[in-house]
Amino acid sequence: MEVVGLVCGAAAAVVVLAWGFLWVWDPSEGMKSREQAGLPGAGSRSLLVIAHPDDEAMFFAPTVLGLGRLRHRVSLLCFSAGNYYNQGEIRKKELLQSCGVLGIPPSSVMIIDNRDFPDDPGVQWDTELVANTLLRHVEVNDINLVVTFDAGGVSGHSNHVALHTAVRALHSNGKLPKGCSVLTLQSVNVLRKYLAILDLPWSLSAPQDVLFVLTGEEVARAKEREQSLATRCLDSRQGMSAGADFGTLSQLVQPIPSLMNVEDNKATLEQHPPHFLERRGVGWGGVGDTR
After folding, report:
1. Is residue 285 part of a domain?
2. Can you tell me the distance from the alpha carbon of 19 to that of 158, in angstroms, rounded to the nearest whole number?
């Protein structure tokens, strides 16, 4: 019993220290600045890119609310109406209600509802079409930060993965506007996914760039709005990246140039020093993505 009490006390201490704060963690440097982590300053225009209505609440609620605390102007681009069960119209209305809870006004929400992007895990969305659609939206709205899924899609849904593939293509080909950063929500294994707030110590120690944590006030306020889907998903019993109380994100960075071509890639190395990229292998960020 004494051991259990000590463990619970330690967990509570971690929660108290981290609750309600934005942490930007680097094991080699201690705390990284928001700029180093890919987070632009107050007044920036951030775009959340999702595949279906309810993604914003099930996976990205802590991120959206965290960006709001940083005084970002957050907008949302949803690539489908979520009509897999022929409930598209209902889900579009739920999305607008959910965004209201998260602080995104209806004028900042765009829902794409056409045959090119069906809500269907068995259909592979065209990467070039997704990328071109997203790029137009980024350019027209002068977006500074794009937030979306990582290569694992959090839940593994093919539509989620398609968004990451398109964003990665835009980023690696240098097509995003200058100064536009990309953050991707880290996928985790099933065990960590359902540990909720108890997973916080692992998230703090794992390679990451940004960690958003919901405050108790935000959870309580959302629960008062039970007419919205976001309310149910903000409850810590529902699963997101590693529990709906917080979300960890990684900055999308350029691949490490081959050591055989160091002389030809000095500019890239200067922008991304080895100590910054080493902890990600040669991948794109996200847990276990080091291919």
Report:
1. no
2. 33
Q: How big is the chain, counted in residues? A: 291
Dihedral (Cα; 269, 270, 276, 277), 10-degree rounding = -10
Element (H, E) at 128: helix 127-140
Would you state the pLDDT for residue 199? 46
Q: What are the residues facing 110 on neighbouring strands?
A: 77
Angle at 62 between CA 39 and CA 116, to 5 degrees: 85
Task: Print the domain residue range for 35.
Answer: 2-280
> Would you tell me the crossing angle of helices 158-172 and 127-140 to the nearest 10 degrees?
60
Helix axes 88-102, 61-69, angle to 10 degrees: 40
Q: Picking from 47-61, 196-210, 268-282, which range would have the lowest pLDDT averaged per residue?
A: 268-282
Q: Could you tell me the pTM of the whole model? A: 0.68
173 inside domain: yes
Supply φ then ψ for residue 229, to 5 degrees: -65, -35
Measure Cα distances from 169 to 64, 177, 182, 253, 276 in Å: 24, 13, 12, 12, 21
Question: For the segment 182-230, what is each residue's pLDDT rounded down to a tens digit?
Answer: 999 988 654 445 444 444 454 444 444 566 666 667 665 555 554 444 4
With respect to residue 215, please indicate whether it lies within any of the assigned structural domains.
yes
In whole angstroms, how far apart are CA 36 and each of 20, 140, 161, 192, 238?
Answer: 21, 26, 26, 27, 31
Domain membership flag for residue 90: yes
Number of domains in the chain: 1
DSSP conformational letter for 47: E
Residue 211: CATH number of its domain: 3.40.50.10320
